[in-house]
Amino acid sequence: MNPGPESSLSVFYEDRELLVLNKPPGVAVQPGSRRGKTSGKQIELSLLELAEKQFGGAGSLWVVHRVDQPVSGIVLFARKKEIAASLSDAFAKGKVNRTYLGAVESPPDPAEGELIHYLKRDGKRNISRDYAEKVPGSKKSRLSYTLAGKSERYWFLKITLITGRHHQIRAQLKAVGVSVKGDIKYGARRTNPGGGIHLHAWTLNLKHPVTGEELSFNAPLPEDPVWDAFKT
Known about the structure:
Blueprint: E1 10-14, E2 18-23, H1 47-54, E3 62-63, E4 72-78, H2 81-92, E5 97-104, E6 112-122, E7 127-131, E8 139-150, E9 155-161, H3 168-175, E10 199-207, E11 214-218, H4 225-231
Parallel strand pairs: 4-10
Antiparallel strand pairs: 1-2, 2-4, 3-4, 5-9, 5-10, 6-7, 6-8, 8-9, 10-11
């Protein structure tokens, strides 16, 4: 559920340069094409808009990276334009380490490994298509994963992003026959209530762009029975 504009956001870290938040599933990181297409319905605010209301007003924050709308977990914002540029460069050069946790509907084979595909974004359907070889418009995409646990019905994967592409984890897992719970866009059997999926931006590790301090964040899992099974 999208928090209302007056809701207090969950903050991991805040200083003059950075703001690190815990995003609920179902909230877009930034405004998109939804504007002008609501037919009188109330427009739900993005995480950026909610954060700007709470931490400095419109134009006070810059998006550094994106977490898909149905995904929960850590999101980093910059509080200065030049800091955003520095952080974006760090992400592009692989200097920021990110791991995700996913609850999937079938076990991966093998139980751990690295996936390499070429992903091409289909803007009309808002999906990424996977290819084994490079095709025009595609980008090389890499991640590693390991089986971190299981419950009676689901398997839990710890996923480390090596590159950062549109819907990368979801598309690459689907390419090897594994779907995230609730993610019908990428092969799941059914949706989750509320439209979120069981993919969580779990950890984020980086150097502070000004002080050089090593920063490490770990986002607690949302409260629901599937995640609760992993916690135990």
